[in-house]
Amino acid sequence: MKEVQTPLTIEEKDSFKTIFSKYGAYAYDKQENLANLIGDLTGSLDIDNGTLEFNDDIKFDVQILAFYSNEFNQLSWAWDNENIGFDESLVKNSLEIKKFGEKYDIAEFTTPSYKIDFDDCHIIAMIASSLLDVDAYYLASFEDLDIFVTIKSDLIKKDNSSERFRKTFNNFQKNFDVFARPAFEGYAKLKGCEFKEREEFSVAKNGEDRLIAGFSERGNLTHLQLLEVD
Question: What's the pLDDT tens digit per position in 48-79?
């Protein structure tokens, strides 16, 4: 009998690190897709029109997610922006994240502004990118602020190959402080793979290919094997 696959969810006991572990690799994948399109180009943000332009061929409609003040080391959500006055049509994604925070009691999503290291803002944006129906996020400079925007566009092409899965997950769990086991499960399920978990290893079935991840007793990744079917 085929196993019924449970959907990926945020559970009441999940720490913020666990939530990032579950959703971060998928966001990392999205960012690689964007990087493959824009390369070294720098985007120009037009807040009035809600657009982000890299060149004549690459221009996106965007949503404003949050903004960061380097002067105060402070992240502020775009849903709370009375002092700036973003158009309501541009903060829909930000409001969605607030609703996620209210539903799952995630203070990082419901607190209007708070002190945070700049690098940690990317972790916040990565989780948001995976929770939302978007293709990537981008950090744009505007006057004295760093503004995180979300992008949804057919110009950003997805790579669903098994080799991409292997490389992306391996790099993600090496570059970030995460729990490898829930990270593998989260990435597999968000990528639409069939997922199976055993005591010492987990399997993601991508088409006919299989990716097998082994874990230590402490949950660290010990190996990641790709079995491809020609």
Answer: 999 999 999 999 999 999 999 999 999 999 99
As a whole number of angstroms, the distance between CA 7 and CA 137 comes to 24
Could you state, in order of their start, the residue ranges of all structural domains in the chain?
16-151, 178-227
Question: Shortest CA distance to 184 belongs to which of 143, 214, 155, 158?
Answer: 214
Q: CA gyration radius for the chain?
A: 18
Residue 197 tokens, joined: 């978990």
The candidate with the shortest Cα–Cα distance to 185, out of 11, 35, 33, is 11
DSSP 8-class letter at 154: T
pTM, two decimal places: 0.94
Query: Which helix H or strand E contains 148, and what residues bound it?
Result: strand 145-151
H/E segment holding residue 88: none
Which two tokens mark 124? Answer: 């916040």
**Percent share of the chain, pLDDT over 70:** 98
For residues 136 and 223, what is the distance between their CA atoms, to the nearest angstrom? 28
pLDDT range class, residue 3, cuts 50, 70, 90 = low
Name the one residue in this structure whose structure tokens are 């060149």.
55
Q: Evaluate whether 57 touches 140 at the Cβ level (below 8 Å).
A: no
Q: Which strands, in side-by-side order, build the sheet including 221-227?
A: 194-197, 201-206, 209-215, 221-227
